[in-house]
Specification:
Elements: E1 2-5, E2 11-13, E3 28-31, E4 39-43, E5 46-50, E6 55-59, E7 64-68, E8 79-85, E9 90-95, E10 100-104, E11 107-111, H1 113-116, E12 125-131, E13 134-139, E14 143-147, E15 152-157, E16 170-174, E17 177-181, E18 185-190, E19 204-207, E20 213-219, E21 222-227, E22 230-235, E23 238-245, E24 250-256, E25 259-264, E26 268-271, E27 277-279, E28 288-294, E29 297-302, E30 306-309, E31 316-318, E32 328-334, E33 337-342, E34 358-362, E35 365-369, E36 380-386, E37 391-398, E38 400-404, E39 409-412, E40 429-436, E41 442-446, E42 453-456, E43 462-465, E44 474-479, E45 485-489, E46 497-501, E47 506-510, E48 516-517, E49 524-529, E50 535-539, E51 542-546, E52 558-559, E53 564-565, E54 568-569, E55 576-581, E56 587-591, E57 594-598, E58 605-609, E59 621-627, E60 632-637, E61 640-645, E62 659-661, E63 673-676, E64 683-688, E65 693-698, E66 703-706, E67 719-726, E68 732-740
Parallel strand pairs: 48-52
Antiparallel strand pairs: 1-11, 2-7, 3-61, 4-5, 5-6, 6-7, 8-9, 9-10, 10-11, 12-13, 13-14, 14-15, 16-17, 17-18, 18-19, 20-21, 21-22, 22-23, 24-25, 25-26, 26-27, 28-29, 29-30, 30-31, 32-33, 33-34, 34-35, 36-37, 37-38, 37-40, 38-39, 40-41, 41-42, 42-43, 44-45, 45-46, 46-47, 49-50, 50-51, 53-54, ...
């Protein structure tokens, strides 16, 4: 058991204008979907709502929304159940892997007993009931009873036949008894007669009516069961079907103010004791999962509109800003914007045939663009930006290209006259990647097609090229400064890299062979051009780079350089899933075991983040994109997006916009002071007023950072410190002053 203190300086969002505070240096911020709410818990002045991968709450006192995540001390993000115990003022959070967090006051206590237990099979916590100082956790193997006062597991019930594990969907406490719902039976036992409920023989079993059981509730001293679109009342000898039929399948049942609350796939319906029904009219309601009625106010978890309520005048759906969903697998950067796209293809490179959709992050807000706004295409696969014409290009893995000028979308496909796509059938335009050239042209690759490489201009006219048969299976492409196109080939089609020059039509295949590429491995998952003109390659067997890409077609041997770190090839035992280059030319490297940040040549390790040492949502890194202006690094994981603000920003051409923050520095401050707005490769010197050198640091891109220590790593004393700098020409400048107050 470990205790974690989380700050109430959380993510504060106003009701109407959802605004996010700036992220601090080396700070984290989650970017999860909060609109797809499924679970609720009412806790005095707070209403908690959870999706499958996120948690937030509404504070009724100040009308604010706040997010809770691993950044604030939660142990997981895959939430499967919520429960609130009013006697202990404790929120119980259950996760899919069996982990448990208890939230009370400003403290989160983790109970990992179930997660760490040697239990065969799933450990998901499906439902939580509470009574006095105990919580009853319905799991995939039985019931775990928590003592919330002692903060420990009291006992575990295995009520299956012969004490076998049994998946419990839900528990209900009524008339001094507890009822457990399974797929085939309703189990019951007394909580007051002293029975040992760890003994399976002390449980009574009643068979259920035919159908998939959904939920149970205690209503008017009876147990009500939901199966499909019908309700059943428990009677002595079996079940009595209530004369009620609902238009859609039931998801949840509860009771309030003497009425039954039935949540279906489309509606929330109240049922009186006389079996009169009333459908709740709530405009934002689209796909409800859970409803709570208290003091005349409805709180509804809705899968499209978050927390639907009538707390103040009128109905509204509220939730923190976030992407359309948590299955973002691709990230792309354009100036001051991040595009998040779901996967476009499966592991066999076949399209998923999903309606086109992307999430756009700009001005600290997420917006969703779906099939209502986009042309009728499927499976968006890549994004590029033409700064000359201010046009964003989006590729579809099946339906062509989209131009977006910020207002209107234009589709270019095989019906567009003179388009290079006009030679293809509807099911052949699997555009795998695109890159914008320096003459307003766009280069793009089509997977499993001949010809595979194409160039198109803003007016939709273009040409096609034949770089060789293996290039027909390019997954990633980049354009080098001399006009060469580098294409990473899908592993199941031989892998490697094809380099092609469209002007003289020369091509070459680079592989792991010595003199023919020298790649760490032939399975190339990402390829990236850095700020020194080197081409970096991420493979299934580590990282390498080409310091002389212009020689690729020079008819001479060429091999990639494998950086050496800790006396071995850089990450040689890791599958590299993605690469990104920050404003300081440092290399962000994603793997299936977390994320690394290395220096420009791979010789220095700055960070290595995983779920054990950071708030990272998952160790499975899908993609990385960076906003150079702020240094914020967006990381797409298998569980959603999280960002980290690094210490490299876009460099400036002069020193006219220097910012130093925080300033002054208080005694309680333990972070980094940022000196931002620098020319690239600036040397910054921190001195006393008398000129004594305290520390010398280098900038990465346009930022240098100081940890408020001297050369001996001792925190400096109270005083005024000068910030001096020297550019690459050695000219000295004074940036400003930093006040340190101890």
């Amino acid at each position: 058991m470990r205790k974690k203190l989380f700050s109430y300086i959380l993510f504060l969002i106003a009701w109407q204008a959802i605004a996010q505070p700036s992220i601090s240096l080396e700070g984290w911020q989650t970017h999860l979907n909060y609109s797809q709410a499924k679970r609720l818990a009412l806790a005095q002045q707070k209403v908690y709502a959870a999706t499958d991968n996120s948690l937030f709450y509404f504070d009724k006192e100040d009308n604010s929304l706040r997010k809770l995540s691993t950044i604030d001390g939660l142990s997981e993000i895959s939430i499967s159940a919520l429960g609130f115990n009013a006697d202990n003022n404790t929120l119980v959070i259950g996760y899919r892997n069996g982990n448990i967090d208890l939230l009370f006051e400003n403290t989160i206590v983790n109970l990992a007993a179930i997660k760490d237990a040697s239990i065969t099979g799933a450990k998901t916590i499906n439902h939580i009931s509470t009574l006095q100082d105990e919580a009853y956790l319905a799991t995939d193997f039985g019931v775990v009873v928590l003592n919330l006062s002692a903060l420990e597991v009291k006992e575990t019930w295995y009520p299956g036949e012969e004490g076998a594990a049994l998946a419990i969907k839900q528990s209900v406490i009524a008339n001094d008894s507890i009822y457990l719902l399974t797929s085939q039976h309703l189990l019951s036992a007394s909580l007051t007669d002293g029975s040992n409920l760890q003994d399976f023989r002390n449980w009574q079993r009643k068979s259920l009516p035919v159908g998939e059981s959904v939920a149970i509730v205690s209503w008017i001293d009876e147990v009500i069961l939901a199966i499909g679109d019908k309700l059943w009342q428990q009677i002595e000898n079996g079940w009595n079907e209530l004369p009620l039929t609902f238009e859609n399948s039931i998801r949840n049942v509860s009771a309030a103010n003497g009425n039954l609350i039935v949540v279906t796939q489309r509606n929330v319906i109240t049922v009186t004791p006389e079996l009169q029904t009333n459908v709740l009219t709530a405009q934002p309601l689209a796909s409800p999962w859970h409803a709570i009625f208290e003091n005349g106010v409805w709180w509804i978890a809705d899968e499209e509109n978050g927390l639907v309520n009538n707390f103040e005048q009128g109905w509204q759906g509220i939730f923190p800003s976030g992407p359309a969903n948590n299955n973002v697998a691709q990230l792309f950067t354009t100036p001051n914007r991040i595009f998040g796209l779901p996967a476009a293809k499966n592991e066999n490179n076949a399209p998923l045939n999903l309606p086109a959709q992307f999430s756009l992050y700009q001005n600290n807000q997420w917006e969703t663009y779906g099939e209502q706004l986009l042309p009728m295409v499927e499976d968006l696969s890549a994004v590029g930006y033409d700064p000359i014409n201010n046009i964003t290009w989006l590729a579809s893995y099946g339906d062509g290209l989209i131009q977006w000028n910020g207002d209107n979308f234009r589709l270019i496909n095989n019906q567009t006259p003179d388009s290079p796509l006009s030679i293809f059938n509807d099911d052949e335009m699997w555009i795998s990647d695109l890159v914008v050239g320096n003459q307003e042209e766009v280069w793009f690759s089509i997977y499993n097609a001949t010809p595979p490489l194409h160039q198109i201009t803003t007016d939709g006219i273009g040409e096609s090229y034949l770089p060789g048969s293996r290039a027909n299976f390019a997954n990633k492409i980049i354009r080098y400064g001399n006009g060469d196109i580098w294409m990473a080939i899908a592993g199941q089609n031989g892998g490697g890299i094809v380099v092609y020059n469209p002007d003289d039509q020369q091509s070459r295949l680079l592989t792991s062979g010595v003199g023919s590429g020298g790649l760490p491995g032939n399975i190339v998952n990402d390829i990236m051009l850095d700020r020194d003109g080197f081409i970096w390659v991420g493979t299934n067997e580590g990282v390498a780079y080409f310091p002389n890409p212009f020689l690729a077609l020079a008819n001479q041997p060429i091999d990639a350089v494998a950086p050496i770190f800790n006396q071995r090839r850089l990450l040689s035992t890791e599958i590299i899933t993605t690469l990104a280059i920050d404003a300081g030319n440092r290399k962000w490297i994603g793997t299936n075991n977390g994320i690394w940040l290395f220096g420009p040549g791979g010789e220095e390790l700055f960070y290595n983040f995983n779920t054990e040492n950071s708030p990272l949502l998952s160790n499975e890194i899908l993609d990385i994109a960076i906003l150079d202006e702020t240094g914020e690094v967006f990381i797409a994981t298998s569980e959603g997006i999280i960002s980290f603000r690094s210490t490299a920003t876009r460099s400036r051409s002069n020193y006219e916009s220097i910012k130093i923050f925080p300033n002054p520095v208080r005694a309680t401050f333990q972070g980094l002071i940022a000196i931002e707005g620098l020319v690239n490769n600036t040397v910054v010197k921190i001195t006393t007023i008398s000129g004594q050198l305290i520390k010398e640091i280098n900038s990465y891109g346009g930022m240098a950072t100081w940890d408020v220590t001297d050369y001996n790593n001792r925190r400096v004393s109270t005083g005024i410190y000068l910030v001096m700098m020297a550019d690459e020409n050695g000219e000295q400048h004074m940036v400003g002053k930093i006040a340190v107050v101890e």
